[in-house]
Design goal:
The protein has helices spanning 37-52, 57-76, 89-99, 118-123, 144-150, 173-180, 270-285, 288-309, 337-346, 369-387; strands spanning 5-8, 83-86, 105-109, 130-134, 155-161, 185-189, 206-210, 222-226, 313-314, 328-331, 351-354, 357-360. It has 388 residues and is an alpha/beta fold.
């Protein structure tokens, strides 16, 4: 994270016992989601296999990675071979940028999270397409009309976040893909949406998402979806020995594996893959993105309502709830943002501050007590200002 993004923990440190879980005021899942119990169990099991490596244990580790891929395919409405496991969201995006060769231009919203920009910048002078920012004209998000205005014959792709990391705006992926048409790629960074709200994932030609935020799966494994309909547009730019059908062939390069696996540089982190698979299975058992997203949005709406009553200005205020993911952001006019953030932390609330904005990102498991903690902290701020 850069210097403009800070996260302040509450006063209570649960220590190393992972079974304790986050405190009631943990509202920072858009930064890091604390590991869920199923994930902790899966990590322990896979690590145990890796430590023992008795007969068949390595095959069991490979099977755990395959199971995670299959769970991802069910969630995203994809075929299993369209899914591969990358080390992280950023690695997956660099993999895609390395694979999209030739002339052309990739559109990226000007205020995108930098992880969705740097892969294209780095490969623009290495045989990849150029990069052109889309200026949302006072907004942070790209609408279908704005995209239509920026389409020129040289555009080959739009790279966009499914959910904006500051405002929480949920991108209309299906409408954006309709404007792009079948010959241009919609490339989606889904890490702020997957596991928090339903996504129009079928519209994405390419989708990448790590598991350390809303899925609460920790680091080391990310989903890389490459639809069959666009597989021919991507060469295995970072594909290594794990991405070919016969890595021990007498002549190289060998034939790439079919599907997304062609872009793999090496084998996945097996415990991380097991954790990701457990998180995806747990999401399904909790009712899937629709049910989980409904609970998250209800909790977020309560938190933002408490902030409004305290005089806060809320980003995207008044938008339809269906246009917002699990992120809400506010600021208190007349208050020092750093002081606001410190006060929230002292009250046991874990949030992220970006400049003058405070970002809230609860989960489905966030208790109602979190809203009461927020109300009390905001009262403390109001009282301190009155006393000055």
């Amino acid at each position: 994270m850069n210097d403009q993004i800070s996260s302040t923990p509450g006063p209570a440190d649960p220590g190393p016992d992972l079974a304790v879980g986050p405190g009631a005021g943990y509202l920072d899942h858009a930064r890091v989601g604390p590991l869920s119990r199923p994930v902790v169990t899966a990590l322990a099991g896979a690590t145990g296999l890796a430590a023992r490596l008795g007969p068949g244990d390595l095959d069991r580790l490979f099977a755990l990675a395959d199971a995670a891929r299959d769970s991802a395919a069910r969630l995203l409405g994809a075929r299993p071979h369209e899914i591969a496991l990358a080390p992280s969201t950023s690695n997956g995006l660099f993999t895609v940028a390395a694979g999209l060769r030739g002339p052309g231009t990739v559109l990226v919203p000007r205020d995108e999270f930098p992880a969705n920009l740097y892969p294209w910048l780095r490969f623009a002078d290495r045989g990849g397409p150029g990069v052109r920012p889309v200026d949302p004209a006072g907004q942070r998000h790209v609408t279908p009309d704005l995209l239509r205005h920026h389409l020129t014959p040289d555009v080959v792709a739009l790279s966009v976040s499914a959910v904006d990391s500051l405002t929480g705006h949920l991108a209309p992926l299906a409408a954006l893909k309709e404007v792009l048409g079948p010959d241009r790629l919609l490339i989606v960074d889904a890490i702020q949406g997957l596991g928090s709200v339903p996504l129009e994932a079928e519209a994405a030609d390419v989708l990448v998402s790590g598991g350390q935020k809303w899925l609460r799966a920790g680091w080391g494994a990310a989903l890389l979806l490459v639809r069959d309909r666009c597989a021919g547009r991507l060469v295995p730019g970072l594909g290594g020995w794990a991405g070919v059908a016969d890595p021990f062939a007498s002549r190289h390069p060998a034939e790439p594996l079919p599907g997304a696996a062609a872009h793999l540089a090496t084998n996945p982190d097996f415990p991380a893959a097991a954790a990701l698979g457990a998180a995806l299975d747990d999401l399904r058992e909790q009712g899937g993105p629709a049910a989980v997203g409904l609970r998250i949005r209800a909790t977020l709406a309560d938190l933002l309502d408490r902030a409004r009553r305290a005089g806060a200005e809320v980003l995207l205020d008044g938008v339809d709830a269906r246009e917002r993911g699990g992120i809400g952001t506010f600021r208190l006019p007349g208050h020092d943002p750093a002081a606001v953030h410190r006060t929230l932390g002292a009250a046991g609330l874990v949030t992220t501050r970006r400049d003058e904005w405070i970002r809230l990102s609860p989960h489905a498991s966030t208790p109602a007590a979190a809203a009461d903690l927020l109300t009390e902290a905001l009262r403390t701020l109001a009282a301190a200002r009155t006393a000055r």
